[in-house]
Amino acid sequence: MKWLFTLVFSFLSLGICAQQKNNHTIKIYLEDAERGRNIDDAKVTLEGFEIPVIIGQYDKKGKFYYFDKIPTGYNTIMAYHKKYNEKGFQNLEGLPGELKLRLYDPLNVSYEYQSNTYEESKQDIFVEDPYKIAIFSNDQEDYNLFKDYLYNELNKLKLDIEVVNPYLESDKDKNSPYPFGNNHFLEQKEPYPKIKTFNLRTTDDFILPLIGGYSTEEYYYGDDRRYKITAKEVAFYFRKKNGAKFKRFNDPILKKIRLIKRINTASLIYLKYMYESTNKKKHYKNKYTNKLDEQNQFTRIDSSKIFFYNNFLNLKAMMIPTQDRFGMRLGSYYPVTNEFLIQYKSNILNEQNHVDNKNVSGLKCAKGLIEVEPSTGLGILDQYENLSKCLGQKF
Question: Is the dihedral of CA 33, 325, 145, 346 positive or negative?
Answer without folding.
Answer: negative
